Amino acid sequence: MAEEDEALGYGEDLAAVVTAVLTGSRLLVAVAARSLGAVEDRVTLPQFRMLVVLAGHGETKLVTMAELLGVNSSTAMRMADRLVSAGLIVREVNPHNRRESLMRLTDEGRRIVDQVTARRREEIGTIVARMSVEQRQALISAMNAFNEAGGESPVNAPTPLGWPDV
């Protein structure tokens, strides 16, 4: 690992930061997976991501959803079909362009997004509460700097699961 870090031009400090971020990322992925556990019998992670995007965007065209998720339209259509069958989204023909489909969350779809988000916020809150006030302040500064360096826009209000309205 040290040789790889050197080859990438990392100094000891940068290598330690990368290791800490990778470890933190692993923790956050585990928190996200656990938060989804209560609804995993209803939706897959990719399907849940579609619900989250709809929660942030509201009514969305199928082709736009495919772009936002980074999948092809046929994949987005299959995901949407499953979510329609589960009663989590409604898909209708766009009245302004009959060749397009529009999707939106149902009340049950919104409930699932809210439930998973609440579980995730609670678990992250429990972890952060174990830190000192000084550590929490340092974490805020570090995460804000990390997000800015990565091009992530600041979020004024919490978004579902922390995923942006991509």
CATH architecture of the domain at 41-148: Orthogonal Bundle
Q: Helix count, per DSSP?
A: 7
Summarize the main sheet: 3 strands, antiparallel
For the secondary structure, the number of strands is: 3
Tell me the name of the CATH class of the domain at 41-148: Mainly Alpha
Distance between the termini: 34 Å
SSE topology string: HHHEHHEEHH
> Which secondary-structure class do the elements indicate?
mainly alpha
CATH superfamily of the domain at 41-148: Winged helix-like DNA-binding domain superfamily/Winged helix DNA-binding domain
Poorly predicted sequence stretches spanning 5 or more consecutive residues: 160-166
Cα-atom radius of gyration: 19 Å
Mean pLDDT value: 87
**Helix coverage percent:** 55-70%
**Which word captures the global form?**
elongated
What is the strand arrangement across the widest sheet?
Answer: 1-3-2
> In percent terms, what proportion of residues is strand?
5-15%
Looking at the structure, the CATH topology of the domain at 41-148 is Arc Repressor Mutant, subunit A
Label this structure with key terms.
166 residues; mainly alpha; 7 helices
Describe this structure in words.
With 166 residues, the chain is mainly alpha-helical. β2 and β3 (97-105) form a beta hairpin. It has helices at 2-7, 12-36, 45-57, 62-69, 73-85, 107-129, 133-149, and strands spanning 60-61, 89-94, 97-105. It has a domain at 41-148: Winged helix-like DNA-binding domain superfamily/Winged helix DNA-binding domain (Arc Repressor Mutant, subunit A), CATH 1.10.10.10.
